[in-house]
Design goal:
327 residues; alpha/beta; seven-stranded mixed beta sheet; four-stranded parallel beta sheet; 11 helices; binds adenosine-5'-triphosphate
């Protein structure tokens, strides 16, 4: 018997990222244009458990492409980690007549999606929505480009004051376990150094950064520090620096949640729109448990298991660029 999807649910989960709204809009409109109803699930997996569901029309997603955040709200949900929580979630799907799900989030969201798919045989498609760009199988994640541009704008401003006051600025950047935001932002702002988890030599990096500045008779420096590259983040690096180089006038800036907000860039809006449409297309092709990725500007299907378990590496030439350009 032919399997036909009549109603798809969409949710955003985990850390929010710019252009999640553009992705929701694309999922809703692509579903409707294929004769599939679309229901929005509020507050991620928590809303799925609690039955916070509302049918979305094309009009409901009007005017959101330029807005940061997510109209569906996002949440972390401990209950969904347990089989009992996922049973309640499945009961909501049954009650609402939702026969497939599109989940927009990061690796935690996909891990939860896989568990639900395995236990209840629900067709699920993941869209990579995270500023961290840490998912394997896709060149970019939704929100990464906007976040990178936000970081660049902030650090450009810090650079002005760092130069005027001859200070060393340690700027802490988000990224969970990944250094993509930090390294790419460091190249974009012309930082003296990037301290990222993928490269071990923390002490050597700091020394090198100081040395580079000195050779250029520079009295100011910008060092980007990935939040988990060193215990204690940017303040810990500042402390280390001041111990070894008391002559340095250090200041720390933690960019924090500023990095998650704002109107998405054109690149993110386009990416999210393409991926949202691709999610519905994949369901029509009877794909299951895959993430929509982008590789060389083409849409690809990546098994959720691979997207979660494989490690995406920082590009060596980018790391090298950082060293070459800071001499
Ligand atoms: P980001 O990387 O942007 O923070 P994320 O999707 O990785 O996004 P998490 O908080 O790790 O964010 O995960 C979101 C939600 O997914 C969790 O609150 C939880 O409900 C569910 N989840 C995470 N890990 C699991 C797991 N191992 N089993 C079941 N559900 C999980």
């Amino acid at each position: 018997m032919e399997y036909q999807i009549k109603c798809v649910g969409v949710l955003t989960s985990g850390g929010d990222s710019p252009a999640m709204n553009a992705a929701i809009r694309a999922v809703v409109r692509a579903a409707i244009s294929n004769g599939i109803r679309c229901k929005g699930i509020y507050r991620g997996y928590q809303g799925l458990i609690d039955g916070e569901v509302k049918e979305l029309t094309s009009h409901d997603v009007s005017g959101i492409i330029s807005r940061g955040g997510t109209i569906l709200k996002s949440a972390r949900c401990a209950e969904f980690r347990n089989p009992e929580g996922r049973k309640k979630a499945f009961e909501t799907l049954q009650k609402e007549g939702i026969d497939a799900l599109v989940v927009i989030g990061g690796d935690g969201t996909f891990t939860g999606a896989r568990a639900l798919a395995l236990e209840y045989n629900v067709p699920i498609i993941g869209l990579p929505g995270t500023i961290d760009n840490d998912l394997w199988g896709t060149d970019m994640t939704i929100g990464y480009d906007t976040s990178l541009n936000t970081i660049m704008d902030c650090v450009d401003k810090l650079k002005d004051t760092a130069t005027s006051h001859e200070r060393v600025f340690l700027v802490e950047v988000m990224g969970r376990d990944a250094g993509f935001l930090t390294l790419n932002a460091a190249i974009a702002v012309g930082a003296e150094a990037a301290i990222i988890p993928e490269r071990e030599a923390i002490a050597e990096q700091i020394e090198a950064a100081i040395g580079q500045g000195r050779r250029k008779s520079k009295n100011s420096a910008i060092i980007l520090v990935q939040e988990h590259a060193i215990e204690g983040g940017a303040p810990a690096v500042a402390k280390l620096l001041e111990e070894t180089h008391p002559e340095y006038n250090c200041r720390c800036t933690i960019l924090g949640h500023l990095q998650r907000g704002g109107s998405p860039t054109a690149q993110d809006r386009i990416l999210a729109s393409r991926m949202g449409i691709a999610a519905i297309q994949a369901l029509l092709e009877e794909q299951r448990s895959i993430m929509i990725g982008i590789q060389n500007d083409s849409i690809v299907y990546v098994p959720l298991a691979k997207a979660i378990n494989e490690k995406k590496d920082v590009k060596t030439d980018k790391w090298d660029a950082m060293q070459i350009l800071s001499i």
